[in-house]
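Recall that a protein's primary structure is simply its ordered list of amino acids. Everything else, from secondary elements to tertiary packing, is in principle encoded there. The following example makes that idea concrete.
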Amino acid sequence: MNIRKWVYLFLTTLLIGGGSAVIVGLLLRWEDIESMASFFVMIAWLFGFGLIFSIISQMGYFAYLTIHRFGLGIFKSVQLWSWIQLLILAFVVFDLFYLRYIAFKDTGLSLFNFIIFPIALLLYGLIVAYFKMKETNRGAFIPALFFMVVVTTIEWIPVLKQGDILWLWLSIIPLLACNTWQILILHRLIKRS
């Protein structure tokens, strides 16, 4: 992969993060717009917010690529490393439910509100991992699933601590959009090299 392709990946991921935050933010906060000026200020603010989560997503992606190589080197077996990733994935999905429930159970939210995010994230991760596997090989399924669920959850932690549903949606959509883009485009960029 050369610098031009890396810059392409970086800039397109920035645009996807900013654009997705604008779309979600306008859908969720449309009633807060009072004038044309406030509309443009909100778009600029949401775009900047999306850029921040795009950068977080890119840091997480390149950190995962490094950790994945370390895991393969340390465990000397793709199968063992895959099982370890699945174990960590199960732990993270459970904790995404349990720790949020413990922290925010007194807010009056139903149990469904705590269960839906881990299940939805896992289902989305399964879909993305399936497409990654179809485009590359079977060995890409578990790493893609791990990245989409575990790394996205780690990137999402600062917002998860707040417990505000608006912020949860404003941050998870750009993270998922950027992470999906990166996981599905990298092999195409490398193949063209």
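DSSP finds six helices and no strands in the chain. The longest helix spans residues 36-75.
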